[in-house]
Write a structure and sequence with these properties.
Blueprint lengths: L1 E8 L1 H5 L3 H10 L3 E8 L3 H7 L9 H9 L3 E9 L1 H9 L12 H5 L8 E3 L3 H11 L7
Antiparallel strand pairs: 1-3, 1-4, 2-3
The structure holds adenosine-3',5'-cyclic-monophosphate.
Length: 138
């Protein structure tokens, strides 16, 4: 079964010039890019996207970080996409991320952790629709 997941290469990845290297890891792992763009979230966008975290102590910091510059948003297609992509990116905290994972290679800290990966098929669909119109998804 072919599924989709949603990712963002977060502002730190764009700032550090890591877009190409990260996309190379993603495509080398067998993910097909179904949608992709450089975009910047507004404060309102980030508060809505991360609404599930609004009571967390790091919410303000998270919104600041995710809105401070452009991100690369993308929808990725692969068999078992959500789970395989989370394996490819590694643990939320790069200190706990496995060798060779995107976060181990490119993330600075638990807050600035380089990439997002959806945690379920349902959220992948919601998050993809948040960033892309139907005609932008191939
Ligand atoms: P992600 O799992 O993609 O989505 C929630 C984000 O909140 C997470 O990545 C981190 O960027 C951020 N986050 C999670 N835990 C912490 C924390 N303890 N301190 C700061 N930021 C965090």
């Amino acid at each position: 079964r072919t599924d989709r997941t949603f990712t963002m290469l977060k502002p730190d990845s764009v700032e550090k010039g890591h877009i190409g290297a990260i996309l190379e890891k993603i495509t080398a792992a067998g993910f097909k890019i179904s949608a992709m763009k450089l975009t910047q979230m507004t404060t309102a966008d980030a508060k809505e996207f991360y609404a599930i975290h609004k009571e967390r102590p790091f919410f303000g910091e998270l919104v600041e970080y995710m809105t401070r510059g452009p991100i690369v948003a993308a929808i990725l297609e692969k068999e078992n996409a959500v789970e395989d992509f989370r394996t490819l990116i590694g643990a939320t905290n790069p200190a706990d991320a496995a060798e060779g994972t995107i976060r181990k290679l490119y993330a600075a800290s638990i807050g600035e952790n380089a990439v997002h990966g959806s945690d379920s098929d349902e959220n992948a669909a919601i998050e993809g629709a948040f960033h892309f119109a139907g005609r932008e998804i191939f």
